[in-house]
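hey can u run this one w/ flavin mononucleotide bound, need the structure tokens asap thx
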Amino acid sequence: MKQNLVCYRTFEEKSPSSFETYKKFNGYTTWEKLLKGKMKPSEVIDAIKAAGLMGRGGAGFPTGLKMSFINRDKEGQKYLVCNSDESEPGTSKDRFIMQKNPHQLIEGMAIAAYTMGATVGYNYMRGEFMKEFESCEKALKEAKKAGLIGKNILGTGINFELINIIGAGAYIVGEETAMLESIEGKRAMPRFKPPFPANYGLYGKPTTVNNTESLASIPVILDKGAEWFKKLGTEKSGGTKIFSVSGHVAKPGVFEIPMGTPFKDLLELAGGMLDNRGCKAVIPGGSSMKIVPGKTMLKAEMSYEGMQSVGSAIGSGGVIVMDDRTCMVEALACVIKFYEDESCGQCTPCREGTNWLHQNLRDIIAGKGKIKDVDLLVEIAGKIEGKTICAFGEAVAWPVQSFIEHFRDEFEFYCKNGYSKVKGK
Ligand SMILES: Cc1cc2nc3c(=O)[nH]c(=O)nc-3n(C[C@H](O)[C@H](O)[C@H](O)COP(=O)(O)O)c2cc1C
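ok here u go:
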């Protein structure tokens, strides 16, 4: 299977992150084309729409459509923000783009910013990304030295300042409006929407927030053509997607594969199941997406429509594989503990609900649960879902609802017996 087609294409080179390596891959030629007026901003948007690129940050919103929300001709400051927070458990793809192909991200950001009339861009990384910060800073220095970023780029009068910044390591800052608050120097609390960032974003100015992988895909789409990119994937899911595969697999890793690849092929790339055990369940898109039974996943394909058809979503591409020794009650308690810790506390249903869910699960594990507590978990999840300012509410509710939908017997077993003898399903 062909890998490393779009974002990871420099990965097998000797010094993948260097300016020289990126130039070998036609690096910065699209940016230069735009600067020299050989391509119009409207052509960029049309190509990204035609390529079928969907946002790789989790929600899968069409990238070209999002870019078209900003009126580049309207006077005033506009901003581009690259969301490199990558906090979703199970997800580890953006860090590799920043480590091994930072120039492609810089070029993608420059192209996207110019297309939307933004002269300033921020690449916001999570607090733990010291290595990635260093490689992005080094690449930025090289791009500036080559005159490709900064003021009066290549004498065209076009300006684009790029700033790499590093957060303090909070999951919630990955939510786009919380990220804007954090850049402004405030506590990362999501904002009410509307107004949306395209109208009222960073410092109240029109802003677009895109994921690292989304932005890094742009130069390749424009260089090789929308049709080329689209055809790599399926009709509804263009291009490739990077999946990080973790859990009970023999070789956990990060793989860039064409959209529509069968899950079983991705599992094979990750070395197959650890100790040749059975595949009990998979969370296909980071811990906030719905869990899918293994036997269903083994027949599914990795695309937006493929994951929708099995009741889940691609999300951020964090594939968590669980074998037939996994206790689903403890697995859910582990996921919910994360959300309890990371709730920003702004909305009552989330602040109180995550704590209540975790307490309830701890009681069930300790043998203090009753069958009605399993229903209570579902009820609490339903009272969080859709009732919070940001989608953190869904991120908590979906695991609870789907774990219980598919593995209710294990939760009931705990309530009846107080400990787990559950092996296999
Ligand atoms: C709680 C929460 C955490 C999020 N974390 C991330 C993240 O780490 N990285 C990311 O790109 N998007 C994250 N998102 C989604 C962003 O809000 C936003 O949709 C995304 O950055 C848009 O980029 P895209 O259109 O390229 O996907 C998160 C959303 C929520 C609700």
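DSSP finds 17 helices and eleven strands in the chain. anyway lmk if its weird
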